[in-house]
């Protein structure tokens, strides 16, 4: 989505990379950061990584969407928004304790709004509330995560040429690297997330789908004991599969390709051949199917849809290339979760599944609607998938059951 750029009359100044790095590494962390522990063995029998439910407890996922870290780094406005976004995540995680898993649902950063060579500094700040609590997470890319840098209009001189104001004072980067403005690509961000954080369950996906990077599966596994049945079960037995798909945007068109749809079909039939295990799907830009079920823009949200804000039309992918046809044919698929539209937070039924928005979590990006996060709760016995929105002020609304 297009971003609202605050107007400023102040002299444009670029902070040094050294000072900025210190800011990123310190803002938003708890006063006493717990030691980050490595996750347990995380390979299921089919080779997919898994996270395990706690015995006798539901499995709770917090979904953070459209954080947009790194906007307007040349002014006070941008860093202030990032601090506020960290506070939203801190509040949600404090109110939803314990949270078992976090999904970063795209547009974690606004890469086209900053010129630094290392976007991972912003990425790390966005991850910090989750990491400091030792909560594992997974990420999927949005259309702003690897967009090329866009020159601010304030930088253009009278002849129409941006003045060369980099490298910044005390920069640790060479002039050529700091001024390249090529952006940080998806694969570089994913490599950083995977290699530097033991609690990250993100994956760079099959190489034959690149540059579509974040395509992978995570298995939510049984706790290993069913209390009501008083029997042990295989702790690696699946309760739910979480599928992540890169919906593009930024460095290439905003679509889920035929190749991705074919990958999903092959993978789902391989690990869940009888559709006996429920499946949840996560990507960033809504499919065109969202337009078919959307409540009439501006007229509130009526049943069977559930939500609170309906402030803009659906901004969908550029084309529908087969993924929705596959999803509606699989009885195991219970819901799809997207972000991208900051002014929508509804869930609506579509065929035999649900199409859901998250809630705009970050103070970055367009729109001034109150911030929050979608929560997903999975119960094994009896099985159910429920969801609600937790707001920054602690209020809970829009409870919906996505599966009996």
From TrEMBL:
The keyword 4Fe-4S does not apply. Residues 59-342 form the Calcineurin-like phosphoesterase domain. Keywords: Membrane, Transmembrane, Transmembrane helix. The chain crosses the membrane at residues 12-29. GO terms for cellular component: cytoplasm. Pfam families: Metallophos (PF00149). InterPro entries: Calcineurin-like_PHP (IPR004843), Metallo-depent_PP-like (IPR029052), PAP14/16/28/29 (IPR011230). It comes from the Eukaryota. GO terms for molecular function: hydrolase activity, acting on ester bonds. This is Calcineurin-like phosphoesterase domain-containing protein. The lineage of its organism: Eukaryota, Viridiplantae, Streptophyta, Embryophyta, Tracheophyta.
